[in-house]
Amino acid sequence: MRHLLTGFEFSQDEYLDILETASAMKKDPAKFRQELAGRSGAIMFEKPSLRTRTTFELAFYRLGGHGVYLDLQNGELGKRETIADYSRNLCRWVDCLVGRVFSQRTLEELAQYGSVPVINALSDLYHPAQAMADYMTIQEHLGKIKGVKVAYVGDGNNVTNSLFVAGAILGANVTSFNPENCTPDAVVFSKASEIARKNGCTIAVENDISKLKDFDVVYTDTWVSMGDNTPLDAVRKKFNPYQVNKDLVDQSGAQIVMHCLPAHRGYEITDEVMDGNKSVVFDEAENRLHIHMAVLAKLINA
């Protein structure tokens, strides 16, 4: 039994296999419509979602399975009954647990006490399936992943961490440009850096936005993560130099611009860039569906 909790669980060959399978499913979805016939999964969300919920539900449907959505936004997971008991119960009925949660520890407990694969659909530390969809999109538009130079710009968060993890494993060079005290997780960075060295690529963190030059990809995300009630205007002064606007994209030399969405237009990214000819953000969003299909098929049928 395999889980997708952090993204560190898979080798480069396994990542490439997931990307190849997702591409095949995108090209000919009808070929896979019985892949999960008779199988089911619990889709547990403590946080609101547009893309993640829609694509996981549709992924089960397109593969012939069924995803049961459990709305846990009232915070009952671990309160009404223990996380361990949630897992023990659900594993008697379903073949997979998908969790969009506040704490990484919640997913680890679900996996610890359960008997089916657990998939991280977002936690405070990681967003691994998002990163898989990101690198699938990069491959589609640039024709490769290995050696590609990716610049993440803004707040170092769970998306940044997963771009590091998947990038290191796949051989991409990833630099995160962040204001001071807004850098990615140090433990994740250290572990990803070690993998990157073995794969002949680099993982880096940089504060100086003037060094954003000669990159292939510029990627950004919201300046305030979901669940943080800090008003965007309160952090505008700190993050404004990292706004992805036309001047910054021109400075970077990037061929494509990415955003995991939802976007706060006029804050971390301008309309001109978001809707411009270098933007691939909606291709990226679409690829969430195909990656989720591939991950579900690989883990449930393992």
Automatic annotation (TrEMBL):
Keyword Transferase tagged: yes
Stored InterPro entries: Asp/Orn_carbamoyltranf_P-bd, Asp/Orn_carbamoylTrfase, Asp/Orn_carbamoylTrfase_sf, Asp_carbamoyltransf_Asp/Orn-bd, Orn/put_carbamltrans
Protein keywords: Transferase
GO MF terms, alphabetically ordered: ornithine carbamoyltransferase activity
Keyword ATP-binding: no
Domain Aspartate/ornithine carbamoyltransferase Asp/Orn-binding: 146-297
UniProt cross-references to PANTHER family, sorted A to Z: ORNITHINE CARBAMOYLTRANSFERASE, MITOCHONDRIAL (PTHR45753), ORNITHINE TRANSCARBAMYLASE, MITOCHONDRIAL (PTHR45753:SF3)
EC number annotated for this UniProt entry: 2.1.3.3
Family: Belongs to the aspartate/ornithine carbamoyltransferase superfamily.
UniProt protein name: Ornithine carbamoyltransferase
